[in-house]
Design brief:
Helix content: under 10%
Order of helices and strands: EEEEEEE
Structural class: mainly beta
Strand content: 15-25%
Number of strands: 7
Oligomer: single chain
Distance between the termini: 22 Å
Length: 157
Amino acid sequence: MGGGYYTHIGGGTNYVCLTNKPIYDKYQSGWQNGATIYGTEYQTSFTGFSRGDLSQHDAPCVVCHVRSRGSQVMIPGTNKCPSGWTREYYGYLMTSHYNHAHPSEFVCVDVDAEVLPGSHRDTDGALLYVVEGNCNHALPCKPYINAYELTCVVCTK
């Protein structure tokens, strides 16, 4: 599971299920001074879980499929869908800057993103930055590569 760093005032606001096999497309080595994603760690001494104390353990993620309803999932870190799922589109994982005052959710922006005609102005507002993995804080550096831009895919079943 991935998410924004707990002390950052910007970056993604939701937790996302990360793939165990990231696939990179185009990328620039080194930090681009934008958004980052981190692994998620349990910070609880609550012992009501069947495993007991989860504190300081990294948190995994799960996607549920209910046969009686349609399902959709956005998977960060890959541009391929699991077997039996249909790829609707793929692109790059984006969110607000990690140091901005208003965090936002992680979104998958189509590799063939479009723009509003006549909108090439610097008016700010809500802003999107490409997300890079940061494996210095619980995100595993194998298979992830530090500071590479993450792909994403939207799949349906």
